[in-house]
Amino acid sequence: MKVLITGGSSGIGKGLAENFHEKGWDVLVTGRDVNKLAQLANDLQGIRTLVYDSSVADDEIKIVEFIRNVWENKLDILVNNAGHVALTPFGNLKRETLENMYRVHLTAPSLLTAGCLDALKNNKGQILNITSSHGIKPYAQLMAYGSAKSGLNMLTKIWALELAPFGIRVNAIAPGPTDTPVLTNSGFSAADIKNIQDTEQNAIPLKRRGEVSDIVNIAAALAGGAAWLTGAIIPVDGGISVS
Ligand SMILES: NC(=O)c1ccc[n+]([C@@H]2O[C@H](COP(=O)([O-])OP(=O)(O)OC[C@H]3O[C@@H](n4cnc5c(N)ncnc54)[C@H](OP(=O)(O)O)[C@@H]3O)[C@@H](O)[C@H]2O)c1
Q: SS3 of 14, please?
């Protein structure tokens, strides 16, 4: 069994890579930071890695070529996970921030998915989009991130309809606030991170932030069965999206 995880060198993607590696799957992980990828390849023997930047035009071509040439154009699961967060209040709105957000969370997953379609068709594979509770529930100052993740939720449903005739299922996990380095990686200061995390903790009905294993366990359940599930957006968020 073969799985491709974008942004698999950190946080949720790394947790997914570890899970599939432990189960003996062939795992291909992408990320921008070559050192993080090398560390992962050292920790998880046999894993394959590729440097890939979702914001760079045509960068997905090397992934598609890898799958065609090394994996005989076969793919069981594509996980569109790579992403970042940005605050975008009206007072500090920049074209580049908006365009980068939509490139990384909408354009790149669409083009990568298109490139992987033949390989997914060959194995009647599935697509798992990692979206966000911010794509379900609106928050002020998150217009770019919230609308990008909401867009990816809608793409999940559109692709599910379009790809069902090929036996390809498409679902999304929409995580709530989960303990990963995402805020540090996205350039937030330590003080801002503490503020955000305290506010989130109080807003979550189950009164705790998520752990990577909370997300991985649901992804593993989707990977191992759920044969009649497609077009679903699954909130894994301690209830924050319904609060
Ligand atoms: N943690 C949360 O609270 C939370 C909640 C809801 C949704 N999510 C979503 O879950 C996904 C994973 O987030 P995470 O929390 O695990 O974050 P993370 O620890 O920062 O990991 C993000 C991964 O994506 C890669 N990445 C980031 N920008 C990229 C780009 N432009 N091109 C290619 N790869 C890129 C990173 O690798 P490099 O740095 O090497 O590029 C890294 O491997 C994201 O889509 C995020 O929006 C997270």
A: helix
Q: Who contacts 205 (Cβ-Cβ below 8 Å, separation ≥6)?
A: 238, 239, 240, 242, 243
CATH of the domain at 88: 3.40.50.720
Alpha helices (runs of H) in 164-225, residue ranges in sequence order: 182-185, 190-203, 212-224
Q: How far apart are CA 117 and CA 111, in angstroms?
A: 10
Nearest CA to ligand 1 atom 20: 182
Number of domains making up the chain? 1
Report the first-to-last Cα separation within the chain, whole angstroms: 38
Identity of the residue numbered 198 = D
pTM, full prediction? 0.98
By residue range, what is the domain housing residue 75? Answer: 2-236
pLDDT over 90 (residue 225):
no
Q: Which atom of ligand 1 is nearest to the CA of 181?
A: 19
d(CA 162, CA 60): 21
In ligand 1, which atom is closest to the CA atom of 103?
A: 31
